[in-house]
Amino acid sequence: MTDGTSPATAEQPEVRVERDGPFAIVTIDRPAALNALSPAVLAALADAFAGLADEGPAVRGALLTGAGGRAFVAGADLRALAGHTPAEGEEAADAGHRVAAIIESLPAPVIACVDGFALGGGLELALACDFIYATDASSFGQPEVKLGLIPGFGGTVRLPRAVGLALAKELIYTGRRIGIEEAVAAGLVARRFADREALFAGARETLELIAQNAAPAVGLAKRVLVDATGQPTATATLLEIAAFGDAFRTDDMREGVAAFLEKREPRFTGA
Questions:
Q1: 28 and 35 in contact (C-beta within 8 Å)?
Q2: Which family does the UniProt entry place this protein in (predicted)?
């Protein structure tokens, strides 16, 4: 976490959304504050991803990153949290969970591109993405207990799903930070890269591979993976069965099967 002293300006928005063809790049731009998650940043992130959702199949994927090269996000804005009452603390946590839910509900995949610190709320934000790519300079942790707090933006929920319950408990209870080697070995980071340039090149290459597939199918798969995680097998199975049936409602499913049978490349339309 950080004290978050960098002010917002009209000329330099704290969250930038750029387009690269069918892909979006969402950048948290508070480098002087190590991209701390202030209330304004959380609101801007919610607006950014809600806007991408409104674009529908025109958005085939997104990258989420932090500016400056030192941090993805070093945590929540402690200056904003310091004087909170319990009720205000709950409201702050709800704002973080709201952003995570919007990211998870976006049909297109979102890759967290981490270069530097991903701590506290930063790690929780990355965990809300579909997977994490990171540079060798990156480190991860949930240090909230060192401040008398607990993870409030989803760490107790999503970290165990990513690394297993035992390691998640150890990381949360100790507040210790792990580097790229341990993060990859634990399954927290899907792929590692030598530097920022290679990170973004690799992430874009992955989005291009995904974009070759049927957008409705990718969206349905994401929906099941998000909704079924942590559910009993019987419940998760029903979610998959329903989504499998939904795939048969799409034109892309008809085109994909026809192309396979006719031994040609499919011409998906996103419908």
A1: yes
A2: Belongs to the enoyl-CoA hydratase/isomerase family.
pLDDT tens track for 177-205:
999 999 999 999 999 999 999 999 999 99
Question: Per-residue pLDDT tens for 88-99?
Answer: 989 999 999 999
Residues 41-67: what's their mean pLDDT? Answer: 96
Question: Annotated catalytic residue: which of 104, 124, 181, 262?
Answer: 124
* Domain assignment of residue 139, yes or no: yes
Q: Looking at the predicted structure, is the pLDDT value of residue 231 above 70?
A: yes
The CB-side HSE value for 207 (13 A sphere, CA atoms) comes to 27
Q: Please check whether residues 202 and 241 belong to one and the same domain.
A: no
Same domain assignment for residues 132 and 230: no
pLDDT at 113 over 90: yes
Q: How far apart, in whole angstroms, are the C-alpha atoms of residue 225 and residue 229?
A: 6
Q: How far apart are CA 214 and CA 61, in angstroms?
A: 13
What's the pLDDT score for residue 166? 98
Catalytic choice (18, 90, 91, 144): 144
Structural domains counted in the chain: 2
* 86 and 64 fall within a common domain: yes
Q: Do 167 and 232 fall within a single domain?
A: no
Active site residue 205: no
Q: DSSP code of 130? A: S
Range of the domain at 225: 215-261
Cβ contact 207:109 at 8 Å: yes
